[in-house]
Amino acid sequence: MPIKRINPPGLHDTPGYHHVNIATPGRLAFLAGQCPLEPSGSLVGEGDALAQTDQIVANTLIALSAARARPADVVRTVIYVVSDDTAVLAAVWRRLVESELGRAFTTASTLVGVARLGFTGQLVDLDVTAALPA
Q1: Considering the entire predicted model, what is its pTM?
Q2: Percent of the chain with pLDDT over 70
Q3: Does the domain made of 3-7+17-131 have the CATH classification 3.30.1330.40?
């Protein structure tokens, strides 16, 4: 599915994402929030946001593949990090952008610092929407 990505004049420059993404009518895949859990359900990287980010990347790639989508098909991401420290938020963002999933973060992306996530010890969560290819 063709995706048009725009950074319109009059909006601030971004660190790589696009303010607006337009997907031609078609099918969308809405992934559940991707958690830093192994297939057994065990939390990865307790206390380590970057290790958890790596597991989330691996899980998201599997979920996208199941939908027959790639990182380039992603049209929206929301990244949740348990922190109010700008350095921690930036480190997670960099880890995602530099990962095999990195292309997904050139889309409409939001990075949010939160107080808590669903699993005890969970520091990072990723919400993804993809426009499925024809």
Answers
A1: 0.88
A2: 99
A3: yes
